[in-house]
Amino acid sequence: MGPVPANRLGEFLRARRAAAQPSPDQPPQRKRRTPGLRREEVAARAAISADYYTRLEQGRERHPSPHVLDALAAALELSPTETAYLHDLVTPPPTPRTTPPDERPNEYLALVMTAWTLGPAYIVNRRTDVLAANPLAQQLFARFEHPDNVLRMVFLDPAAPRIWANWDTFARYFAGGVRRLIGPVVDDDPEIVAMLAELSSANPTFAQLWARHEISVPGSVVKRFNDDDLGEISLDFELLTAIDTPDQHLVLHRTLQPQP
Fold first, then answer.
1. What pLDDT does 231 receive?
2. pLDDT tens across 185-198, in order?
3. Class of domain 107-256
4. Does the 8-90 domain belong in CATH 3.40.1410.10?
5. In this structure, what is the dihedral angle of CA atoms 187, 189, 191, 195, given to the nearest 10 degrees?
6. Residues 108 and 158 sit within 8 Å (Cβ to Cβ)
7. C-alpha distance across the termini of the chain, in Å
8. Which pick of 39, 59, 179, 220 has the fewest CB atoms within 10 Å?
9. Are the C-beta atoms of residues 18 and 34 closer than 8 Å to each other?
């Protein structure tokens, strides 16, 4: 008998149910022992049976219809991004990749990275391995023990909470962003599976954040770093990708001027 497939759909539903809020105009009928909604409340909101919803969470039913998924998304008040992720958990998008991804940086992403002068710029794959970096990014990464992988940089480097002025806020945002980058079928890449296990074992904060299954994390997209000479530096950032290398992302930073 082969290994039991991971219950990604059930894990996601359970995590988002725990994060959902009961209706304020409907007082609870009994004291809640755990946060979030009860299974029967989600089922009622989605107009499905509580037994069917329970089977979805437990992995005994893994093929709900698109209509049911949309109803669950509405019941759990998921964002459009979370709703798309929910659908992908049931029907992952087709991927043309049949061989390991090319780790050579995409030519045009590299050209943009090299020409970028407004702040650090670097290219990562979906495992957040750093494939290339401009001089400003190299200077930033040199401060960390794990300069070749951003996930390890953020969650395994003991200096990270000191260097990142808003580490707590960014760590939550980053965990959700990485889950989006990796996609719903994390088991396809043994290196990703091993890295997530390593991070979860070494850093309880990462394990807790990853277990939330957050995709859309609210808050402004700003990184704030403590610099020994310049003080606190704020950077906003954006990710770009190319059609030919969808698993590679160019991360562009722009230095924000302090407000008067």
1. 80
2. 677 778 888 999 99
3. alpha beta
4. no
5. -40
6. no
7. 66
8. 220
9. yes
